[in-house]
Amino acid sequence: MGGRLAGKHALITAAGQGIGRAAALALASEGATVYATDVNPKLLEQYAGVANLVPRTLDVLDDDAIATLADEAPPLDILFNCAGYVHHGTILDCAPKDWDFSMNLNVRAMYVAIQAAAPKMLDKHQKTGQWASIINMASVASSVTGLPDRYVYGATKAAVIGLTKAVAADFVKQGIRCNA
Question: Of the residues 35, 47, 151, 153, which is catalytic?
């Protein structure tokens, strides 16, 4: 353990596999207390006995669950919004339910999590001068470039880039960095 993040608190969504899992393990190995969340409790079983990892089932589409976790957790130093969904298809393949699900999971869930976590982050910075970081999972399939069969996914990730830039502009002078 390197200890560079000792005493820090992080929350990661979709930490049960992939990038979320790698981030949870990396932050924990550096000493951060990591709230590793996932909608699938089976995926969180791998964290039993892992130092610095606090597994927690969390559906990021449940606003009340996000608010409850933000209330229960200490002020976060790191919020990594990693949860997302890749819809495959063109505009002709995207039903309204696909659009709604993708926008809610890929964008709205980030908005809700940031809104829930930011007040404690701001308060901590005001009291201690310690900065917090918000990391939002984006993609090259976005406003950066269009990719075939990634219509709604690209639209959501373009929104994530816009959301991230707005949060960064609003709070960088108040102790919160926000990057995608």
Answer: 153
